[in-house]
Design brief:
By secondary structure, the chain is of the alpha/beta class. The strands form 2 sheets. The protein has a 5-stranded parallel sheet with strand order 2-1-3-4-5, with helices on both faces. Helix 5 packs across helix 8 and helix 11 packs parallel to helix 14. The longest helix has 22 residues. It is globular, with a radius of gyration of 21 Å.
Length: about 375
């Protein structure tokens, strides 16, 4: 008989046994990592000629790219500089000398990111690098370009706080005077508030809090063995939903799917007519932002009604806090904790990513 997952989540000894590399500890330490990164980058001064930059490209994959997605959404309605994230080997044709290229690779050896990095060098783009070292770190040092190092010893997906702080610091030097949204005092206050809310959420979602009072543990049990489907408004929660799907995949070792509103309302919503017959064990997480407008609120209400009429179990989750960055991070934190509890409740070690390791080893063999 399988052990009761509720007992596994409420036993600190059982959690430690199922999580030998302490992924949960890394999640619980996110506020500390945030503050340490802020102290590390405090002395960095972006080059003055970055003021002429009108476009920014961040190249990265997986956990190294999600910080770019968060920044792109965060700045999209407050900053006239374009920020694009690419997850591929090559640069877009429009990248030119008014473009700042940022390579973000935790290991420094991500082949897609290195390919784009080399192309940016060949095309003489302004470049910067975010990494712990590896080939990217060595080549950035040799090229004499701005290099900000991440703390070592983390799985890349667990280094998001450091990646975000470092990226915001790099972007603080981009754009003309008066356009410096990333370096504005309001944004700096948001970053301080972000660390505070991560501390607060640890007190609600951490291992010491039992299921009956812990929303993250309870959500993991609610998802159970169902297929998670995550819907969220593209602005500002598209990257948040993407982070949830990535964390459920890497930590929880299961597939999660999803779509963004309002686009989902123009196609995928119709698919629920057959969903109950084809995938009856499906549970929907419907995200919403506490700062969203009235029209989006009405749209989400109607979407929830349609999903429930189709037989879907729907859980609505909202952001908390005042500042945009804090609101985004509040739901990211819930997803991070939930993904680890999804693994440990079903006796799965959340840290190893064997399929990714296998894929990379085979790619390396094929490149010889």
């Amino acid at each position: 008989m399988r052990e009761d997952p509720r007992h596994l989540l409420d036993s600190t000894d059982a959690l430690a046994e199922q999580d030998p590399s302490d992924m949960l500890g890394l999640v619980e330490g996110s506020a500390r990592q945030w503050r340490e990164a802020a102290d590390t980058v405090d002395s960095f001064s972006p080059p003055s000629h970055w003021r002429a930059v009108r476009r920014v490209i961040l190249a990265g994959m997986g956990g190294s790219a999600i910080a770019g997605d968060i920044a792109a959404i965060y700045f999209s309605r407050r900053w006239p500089v374009s920020l694009s994230v690419i997850r591929d080997y090559a640069l877009p044709a429009w990248a030119d000398k008014e473009t700042l290229f940022i390579a973000c690779s935790y290991s420094g050896n991500t082949e897609e990111t290195l390919s784009a990095w080399h192309e940016a060098g060949e095309r003489q783009l302004e470049r910067a690098a975010i990494t712990t070292g590896g080939t990217l770190g060595t080549e950035a040092e040799e090229a004499g370009v701005p290099l900000l190092r991440l703390p070592t010893g983390y799985p890349p997906r667990a280094a998001l706080p450091s990646c975000l702080v470092v990226l915001f610091k790099l972007l603080s030097g981009v754009g003309a005077e008066g356009e410096m949204a990333p370096g504005a005092d309001a944004t700096l206050r948001e970053m301080e508030a972000a660390a505070a809310v991560l501390d607060e959420l640890r007190g609600e979602y951490g291992r010491q809090v039992e299921v009956i009072e812990n929303p993250a543990k309870e959500l993991a049990l609610w998802l159970g063995t169902a297929w998670p489907v995550i819907y969220a408004p593209h602005y500002p929660l598209g990257p948040v939903a993407m982070r949830w799907r990535g964390q459920i995949g890497e930590n929880g070792k299961r597939v999660a799917s999803g779509h963004a509103l309002p686009e989902m309302n123009h196609n995928e919503i119709v698919g629920w007519e057959m969903q109950g017959e084809i995938y009856p064990a499906t549970r929907v997480i419907l995200m919403e932002d506490s700062g969203q407008g009235d029209r989006l609120s009405v749209r989400i209400d109607i979407t929830a009604e349609l999903l429930e009429k189709a037989g879907a179990a729907v859980r609505r989750l909202s952001t908390r806090g005042e500042e945009l960055l804090v609101r985004m991070l509040s739901l990211i934190a819930l997803g991070d904790y939930t993904s680890v509890y999804l693994a440990t409740a079903w006796k799965v070690d959340p840290t190893p990513v064997k399929k990714i390791d296998y894929l990379k080893s085979k790619l390396a063999e094929a490149a010889k």
